[in-house]
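Page 42, continued from yesterday. The earlier attempt failed because a stray header line got pasted into the input along with the sequence. Redoing it now with the clean sequence only.
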Amino acid sequence: MFALSMLSVSIQSPLLRRARQEASFLASSMLDRGIEVTVAVLEEAERASKSVPTRMLLGEAMATLLKRKAELRAAFPARLDEAVARALDAARGAGEAPARQAVSLDELALVEDTEVSRFVEASRLQQTVMPVVEEPLARLDSLMSSALGLPVVRADLNPLRPDVVCGALLDLLEAVPEEAEVRAQWVRYIAKPFARELKGLYEAVVKLLEEQGVEEARYRLKLTEGGALPAKAPAPRPQALGGHREQAHGGGPAVGEAMASDADQLRQRRGLFPRMGDLAKSRPAVPQALMRDFLYRPQWVTENDEPLPAAYYEAVRAQAAAAQRMQAGRYDEMAAARTHEQARAMSVVDRPARSVALEQSLSPEHWGDAGSALERTRTLMELKAQATRISQALGLDAVRTLVEQVAGDERMLAPVREAFVAMEPALLRMAMADPRFFGDDHHPARRLVEGVAQRSFKYNDEYATDFEQFMAPVRQAVRALNAQARPQASDFATRLRAIEEEWRHQDDAEKQVHEPGLRSMHFAQERQALADKIASEFGLRSDLDGVPNIVVDFLFRDWSLVIAHAQLTDDRGQLDPGGYLAVVTDLLWSVKREAALRQPARLFQVVPGLVQTLRRGLDMLGKEPEETAAFFDALMRYHDPVLRLRRLRSARDAEASGLIPLDVTDSVLASLPDTDVAPLERPQPRAAEQPWLGRHELAAAGFEVEAESVAGPLTDLDALDAAPGMPGDTDMAGLASTRPLYDPVTDIGALTDLPSDLPPLDERSGAAVSEPATLLQEAEGVEDAEARTRALLARLRVGDWVDLKVRGGWRRAQLQWTSDNGTLYMFISHGGRPHSMTQRTCAKLIRNRHLRPVDAGAVVDKALRRLGDAAREPETVY
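This time it went through. Structure tokens are written below.
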């Protein structure tokens, strides 16, 4: 039953949350790669099939899967996370009940056809997956069981087991509104690629758990009727130091002699039973392997706990007297002031961490009597003298050992570590009532320590006003707990709730600041996904043939965003809000020169409204005129031949029939420069690497527009210092276009002659030709630096903390959001200030050490892992 209780408190451990987060983070990319392979396999199967109906089915399955790829990729992480959450909830209530047996054929007879089909699909998918993932899955089962607090492997409680992940995939595919036969082909052909990707996911989670120090749980051996393992005789229990003295030496031995009488038994137990002399010391002297065994193995208490012997109390009195004679150092205010003055003069990332230790006295102004190292030791020895059982004395040593290790964890600022040292008296008193509480990650005392530690990672400057505001209630809680003679778990819980309530108020205030930016990022990502889908549909249009590339690019890149924005913001359910979809036909026709010259009247009729609609849509989206200036310059060139013909027709007073003699047309064409030819290949849309954001969205999300960019493209963060030689604002001002905007309403006959300053059009793309950029040569060692940068970038996860250089100062910021494809990042620093950047900018900041990831792993878990490290080291046999 203890294992089950440990399971219930381990479900929400930080380690499991990180493993769950890692799986969700990798889910989208693994499905994306799996779909790519599946599409290729479907295409090959379609070509190889000799049956027409089969080829049609496979072709439809391939086309629809490709169409749904982005949708499935984006939705799978949430589906998987929901499935893992359900698996964890089921594990919490698993009890001792055996794993659910497979459904029998008789049971299937009572199930509906759809459920039978689902069961068959799931079984086939798992049968394909299991042989591929068998090796990493066995290790993951063992590690996950340990992370769940189970003493033996329970593969059926692994929240990432194949039936959970495969079930999430099937749920996702079943929700797609396609024919059942098509979805069945998806499941059939994605099985093998998905199995390979799942193996990679398992290996990544295994690596994560091993890096966090998780040890593999043991497999339980099942005995058969044919024979049983020989029963191992239990290890003899060491004699208490106070009893049977006459059997050892015929008289009352000294403490050391009494301990020597048990030497053989202690060797047999390999140090897993404490020596009374070690338990009596003010500095923990029992092996750390024993301490870890005591905290994590529930059987330890039932097997070893017993009353403390009289010799133990004699040793405690001797140790207490020796501790009183020690000259404990007093808190030196002058030395502390000099240390703080020197630290203030340094950058927060360059300050050396101040040491904090148990034997160190702290500021009495902040911590009262608990600041004195001598007083803390006196409290410890008094409690050791009051202990009645071995577990209590060992629990006191466990507290002192873990407090010492946490105090030495220099990831936290020194005042935070001082708070844990000052809290030692309250923690020691808690250990008298519950000696093993540090082994329970849901105990309020441990949660208070971990909660304060995790919250402290929000700050990187101990002299900042906001950090002092954080520390004030922490100090108040520590002093209040130390003032209680016998603090209970409920007392720690009360203090923790009060502090967390204050933190929630601060978080809510900060959320109001950064929430608009976060909504902008979410909306931009949704808008871009819809725009990519619309662009894909544009690529199938028959009237796209013969359209210049610059117009096609505008249609795919810019106009698809306009249509997507209009559809997402429309609250009236219109089929074509704003008429932005209908205008595409006129746009494509108007830039086909031969067709337009044969119907100039139609062009005169549609172009004014066409250009007005284009500008209205771009304004609605938030596009700046300079972003689309090249397109409108090109559009003016494509419409100019008809404008010239209008002037020619007006001069000749031609009939307004809408038809121009071919000889006139040909003569005009001959006088025009060859500005564009039809593209040799039909252009295809490509999904945007990152969402487009307008100026107001960039500002809300924490982007800043570079001097050389008026609006639109995602740009470097304000944290980027100006690079040497970077032109200033005045140097870049001339890059903005100052030419009048193309307006066919007023320019229908006035712009017959093109402005002389317009650059020539590239005959393939239609874009203005610019001077080639100068390529910078990379220095030696760049490849290694890039590899390190990519590795750090790949390890960033939502919730991670970083130190970020912003306008010459360093801010501690937390990664709040990343785009689905990992090309955009949003960090939030103190006060809810957003800092958003592209992947390229983030890599540049890491490379220049202007963005430095912070190790903010669980503090208490790290201290406990050190006990595990000591347990794996060779121990001295007494």
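Notes: The CA atoms of residues 72 and 628 lie 32 Å apart.
Reminder to self: strip header lines before submitting.
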